[in-house]
Amino acid sequence: MASKSILKNPSARDATAQAHTAREQRNRDIAIHHATLIQQQKDAELQILEAIEELIDYPTSPDADPANPLPADVARFASLVVPFQPSDYDSLIEERHCADLCGYSLCPRKPTKQNGKAKMRIIGGSGSDQGPRFVPSKQLEMWCSEPCAKRALYVKAQLNEEPAWLRRASRVVHIEILYDKPAQTFTAALPERLKTSAADDAIEQSMLNLALERGEQSSSVRSKGLINDEVLENTVTRPAVAPSPSAEIENHKRVEGYNP
């Protein structure tokens, strides 16, 4: 009887080595992907920080009119705030306030100072479209006037809430500036945000599946079928009846156990 080798089959050994190599390569690709995202995040945060530092000194002319700013300032401002999130824009407003400037980057004026120590102020009135409303005094001190506040918030409403390092090139937002025109008030509509295409939705779903495959969980994602968002009204079976005073409510009228 011929002797039989106790070593493994060479073909099985090769298959095991190939599977091990493929697994190592996949782990390496995942590590490179995460490292790339971290580097992109650092680059985007640095870009936003440099933009805030530059916009603190805006506008370029001390005599600029915020209602009709210089075209060069508008173009530069719109390009710098593209990677911003609303929170980054709030940081820019706060930094300009610390520099004693109006929160609107295209306004060279100083912010208003509220008299007194009241934490809330009443703005608006009978002549206002919105009527009187309570506003924190600190919020009013961010701007030189209400029109500049509206111009700044008009820009903030256009910013993308998704971090810059996670955005795709097809979703670049073009920032528009609110100009003052004699026949136009501040009721201008915000630019319409385009709906995502089927290709973008497919890419987003693929990225989500890849994240789930890696074991990641997103706190903002909820499983379908667990929550029913349909609101139904209760069926009225009998007319409403006012509650009657109970014995416990009547007991408080007694004096040492007796009714007066």
- Strand content range: under 5%
Strand adjacency order, main sheet: 1-2
Query: In whole angstroms, how far apart are the ends?
Result: 118 Å
Biggest sheet record: 2 strands, antiparallel
Anisotropy-based shape = flat
In terms of topology, how is this protein built?
Blueprint lengths: L9 H46 L15 H10 L5 H13 L21 E4 L9 E4 H4 L5 H11 L41 H16 L33 H5 L9
Antiparallel strand pairs: 1-2
Helix pairs in contact: 1-3
Question: Could you describe the 3D structure shown?
Answer:
There is one protein chain. The chain has a two-stranded antiparallel sheet. Mean pLDDT is 75; it is low at 181-188 and 219-226. By secondary structure, it is mainly α. The chain is 40% helix and 3% strand. The protein has helices at residues 10-55, 71-80, 86-98, 137-140, 146-156, 198-213, 247-251; strands at residues 120-123, 133-136. It has seven helices and two strands.
